[in-house]
């Protein structure tokens, strides 16, 4: 009996170690790495791979610092230096380096003086042990490995994606809760005033104020931006996606939504850290509300296309599902006109084009939306008021929000 128990325990340990290796390799080998490098860093990786000089030049494009590589054994030192870990690597003694390499199962010969850099790169998860083994025995860097290593450095230095986790993460609900703990009203002063005047002049119905530091920096061809105000709604939406077998990276970008407050809605409520109404000139009021844009970078284009159906089915109110005899269940906080968008035309049947006329300054950006036929008035107004360049960006919004903008239907 003890033999079987010991054998079962060994199998469990092996499974855990094997699973961890798969997880690390999967994280390292994101299939969108090459596309991301080209989109954000203008690095095009040759299909035949890279030599040492090409890889060094690509590293320099990411870090803005020269990367000296005479040959492929130098790649470990170059990776550590690019990730700003050089001083740490120098603390590795020969004994410690040997112990760490043994821990990762590295039995290949390591060139003199590089053992500390190989060990440090592995400890920093800049690459998995399987890739380290290959690099120690090969003089060729294939295109996939090159993309993975370059993205690993970009990730380590914080200049790539900015997100709280994936839909499939076991603790994603906790991460969402933790993120919402810090959301309150904020202002930049100057851009806020420009946006408010634009609303008062009827050049815009409202705008969103966001901090540039919260930008997800996702791959746009895989990303949908979903706006809402309710924390529980987002949690339910994330679990809904997971239940449908859809995975995506998630970033929550807090924003202050500003729009005209009509006294017909009732007396001006007392201010709170999350909502307030201010008088902006005689008999003109603006509401300031804490909301968020949830950015989803989907694992596949097919999953991105399913999003519209899921929102219309489970997160959108309409006359039919709001009728007294309706037995349709919706997510908490479902809206009549949900708002989600892409920066490319994903599906002509599901999305219509509008324009985001953004103004940016000192780490803040305001985003007033416009229909195509009214954009020039908004652009001219913003430029006249601010003297800043208006960044005109096409947006493709869901049909319900487009109907809301045009006033053609309330649902």
What report would you give on this structure?
The chain has helices at 2-28, 33-41, 52-63, 75-82, 86-90, 94-103, 115-123, 129-137, 143-156, 172-180, 190-200, 231-243, 301-314, 375-386, 399-406; strands spanning 165-166, 206-211, 223-228, 248-261, 275-279, 285-298, 339-342, 351-361, 364-367, 369-370, 391-398. It is of the alpha+beta class and 411 residues long. Strands 2-4-6-3-7-11-8-9 form an eight-stranded antiparallel barrel, surrounded by five helices.
Question: Using DSSP, what is the number of strands?
Answer: 11
Radius of gyration, in Å, reads 26 Å
How many angstroms separate the termini?
A: 67 Å
Q: How much helix is in the residues?
A: 40-55%
Q: Beta-strand level of the residues, as a percent range? A: 15-25%
Query: What structural category do the secondary elements indicate?
Result: alpha+beta
Mean residue pLDDT: 92
The arrangement of helices and strands along the chain is HHHHHHHHHEHHEEHEEEHEEEEHEH
The strands making up the biggest β-sheet line up spatially as 2-4-6-3-7-11-8-9
Poorly predicted runs: 1-22
């Amino acid at each position: 009996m003890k033999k079987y128990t010991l054998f079962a325990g060994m199998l469990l340990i092996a499974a855990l170690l094997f699973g961890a290796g798969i997880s690390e390799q999967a994280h390292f080998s994101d299939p969108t790495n090459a596309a991301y490098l080209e989109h954000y860093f203008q690095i095009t990786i040759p299909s035949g791979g890279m030599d040492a000089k090409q890889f060094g030049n690509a590293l320099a494009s990411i870090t803005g610092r020269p990367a000296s590589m005479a040959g492929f054994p130098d790649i470990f030192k170059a990776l550590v230096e690019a990730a700003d870990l050089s001083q740490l690597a120098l603390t590795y003694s020969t004994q410690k380096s040997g112990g760490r390499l043994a821990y990762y199962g590295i039995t290949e010969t390591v060139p003199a003086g590089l053992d500390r850099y190989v060990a440090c790169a592995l400890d920093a998860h800049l690459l998995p042990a399987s890739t380290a083994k290959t690099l120690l025995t090969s003089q060729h860097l294939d295109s996939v490995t090159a993309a993975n290593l370059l993205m690993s450095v970009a990730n380590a230095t914080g200049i790539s994606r900015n997100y709280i986790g994936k839909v499939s993460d076991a603790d994603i609900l906790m991460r969402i809760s933790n993120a919402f703990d810090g959301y309150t009203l904020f202002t930049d002063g100057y851009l806020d005033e420009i946006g408010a005047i634009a609303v008062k002049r009827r050049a815009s119905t409202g705008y969103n104020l966001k901090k540039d530091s919260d930008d997800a920096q996702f791959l746009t061809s895989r990303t949908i931006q979903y706006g809402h105000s309710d924390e529980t709604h987002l949690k339910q939406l994330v679990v809904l996606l997971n239940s449908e077998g859809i995975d995506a990276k998630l970033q929550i970008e807090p924003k202050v939504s500003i729009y005209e407050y009509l006294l017909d809605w009732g007396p001006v409520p007392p201010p709170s850290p999350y909502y307030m109404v201010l008088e902006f000139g005689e008999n003109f009021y603006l509401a300031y509300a804490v909301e968020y844009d949830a950015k989803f970078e989907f694992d596949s284009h097919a999953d991105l296309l399913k999003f519209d159906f899921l929102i219309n089915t489970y997160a959108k109110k309409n006359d039919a599902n709001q009728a007294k005899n309706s037995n349709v269940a919706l997510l908490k906080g479902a809206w009549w006109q949900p708002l989600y968008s892409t920066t490319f035309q994903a599906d002509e049947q599901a999305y219509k084009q509008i324009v985001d006329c953004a103004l940016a300054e000192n780490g803040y950006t305001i985003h007033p939306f416009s229909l195509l036929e009214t954009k020039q008035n908004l652009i001219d107004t913003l430029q006249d008021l601010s003297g800043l360049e208006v960044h005109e960006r096409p947006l493709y919004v869901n049909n319900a929000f487009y109907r809301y903008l045009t006033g053609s239907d309330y649902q």
